[in-house]
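debug: dumping io for the single-chain case to check the tokenizer round-trip. Nothing else runs in this session.
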Amino acid sequence: MVVYLDIVFLLNGAADAAALYATGRLSGLTVAGKRLASAAALGGTYGVLCALPGWGVLSSLPVQACTAAALVRLAFGRREGFLRRVLLFFLLSCSLAGALVAGERLLRERGGALEGLDWRIFFLAGGGCFLLLSVVFRGGARHSAAGQLCRCRILRRGREAELTALLDTGCTLTDGLSGAPVLTVHWAALEALWTPEERAVLSRLEADGASRCLEKLGGGFRLLPYRAVGVRSGLLLCFKADGAELDGQSLGAVTVALSPTPVSDGGGYAALWGGDAGKEAESYAA
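debug: decoded output
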């Protein structure tokens, strides 16, 4: 049998790119184009190596799992929830690979493959993937179905970050200086906004606390007092964004509070907004 390595590279790279993109959307994160291209190239190279004679050991489950982890690390960087994203990517990749193989077989045999399929295995595998995805990512899926999720874009000092935000009417955090609503974001979801020095300090936000991190950061940050269930008086690190948008609607120069931990239990979003999506932040103080 003749194997065209260029076709193997392109198919595997395209499949990995699609699975990584879907992983980001379901996790409430976006993946930069360069990172996605690099991860897809690595996935395509892995597919080529697996197709070479004598390299079949690379197709074993442990090697596949390690490769999936490497692709997710390359695409999304070092962020919390890494293992969850690896699991989602692995399941999506397996589902996509199965669909490609089934489609190729159906086309090749013009429908005759249906007679050879073991439907018990087919439904067992499909049902297992569905249950895993439903349990692990049920939080994000529930909010998405309710129409409460939207794409969020934040600008700071010439840089921008894109992520998924939840419109949460129960989020009443406001800026004490202006009275305007505050956009609460997990700090790691804004990785594209930070300098290397800021990233190093913010990586210790949960361990060191907002006050200690503020002492190590440069200008542009301050502390935001807040109250929550079980917290009578707390402090969040925050900054003033140059601009922010929710589904293309401007929020203006909104205050962004940095949460030391993920704001979503299911990983489907990375930010919370309690104000009106189409109302600029400055208008609240008017």
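debug: round-trip ok. Residues 169 and 240 are 22 Å apart (CA to CA).
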